[in-house]
Specification:
The protein is mainly α. The chain has a domain at 21-67. The chain is 48% helix and 0% strand. The chain has three helices and no strands. It is elongated and about 75 Å long.
Length: 73
Amino acid sequence: MSSTTPTARTHETATPLVLPTSAAMTWLLGTTVVAMIVYYFIGVEQGATAVFSGAQVHELIHDARHFLGFPCH
C-alpha cells in the first residue's frame, strides 16, 4: 500500500453579491406583476371579472385551480 501526503486545503471566502437598490426594485416589481397575473388567471378569471369571453381560459387552467384549492363550481 502506498501512502500519500495530505494536500493543503485553501480556504476560499465567498464574496457577497451586491445588488443596487434600483435593480432589486426592478426585480421585485417584475416578480410581483407576474405573480399577480398568474394569481388572476388561476384564482379569479371567471364570470363577471373575466377578461376573455367564453370558458377557454377557465377550462385550460381548471385542474390547476382545483389542485391549488380554488373552488370554481
